[in-house]
Amino acid sequence: MTSTVPALGTLTAEGSALQAVLLDMDGTLVDTEGFWWDVETEVFASLGHTLDDAWRHVVVGGPMTRSAGFLIEATGADIGLDELTVRLNDAFESRIDHALPLMPGAARLLDELAEHEIPTALVSASHRRIIDRVLPVLGAEYFALSVAGDEVPRTKPHPDPYLAAAAGLGADPVRCAVVEDTVTGVTAAEAAGCQVVAVPSVGPITPAARRTVVPSLAAVDLPFLRGLMTDLR
Fold first, then answer.
1. 3-state class (DSSP) for residue 212
2. What is the pLDDT of residues 25-71, one digit of tens each?
3. What is the 8-class DSSP label of residue 6?
4. Helix and strand tally (H, E) in the chain?
């Protein structure tokens, strides 16, 4: 989904160096990281294989091809990558049809960014078919554009999705704040040059230069995000 993108001259507001906010989806705005693991567990059980819970940290936050490929190799399951990808996406869509809980603070943050006309993009490793099912729940009107994992040459942990989102908004990646929940997503955002807020959902994430770790989205608001850009003013 892509809607009207603001002109570059409208990006900064109230003297802030913050030009745009780029948000991950699964585990950041919607509480679905556990859904993906449940779906993977169920699909592989139907193939006669039990997943080791230790693998969850390997597959979280990454592109479908990487996660599915790893699980095929780890289990030795007799299924091709293309077929497995379809089965996983089908099962995930079925699950979110019944429930799609937002992460605490997500609705409030989206409302605040919209109220202050901050250009915002949804950037996910999930495929377009999944993003388009989630957007109506989040509110498609909150996002100037969205970038799916199957729409870029390389998805997370590569910088391509965040570079594409920044370019689509006419923003400098250095002046974009990214909110992510996994090491894979943080790696992608940092490689793009963005300032990162990490809200860990499954595995731990340590603070680092240009990376702030918070316990939940309740700690993230517009003044907080603008404050990340202090050195760029």
1. strand
2. 999 999 887 888 888 999 999 999 999 988 887 777 667 788 889 99
3. P
4. 9, 6
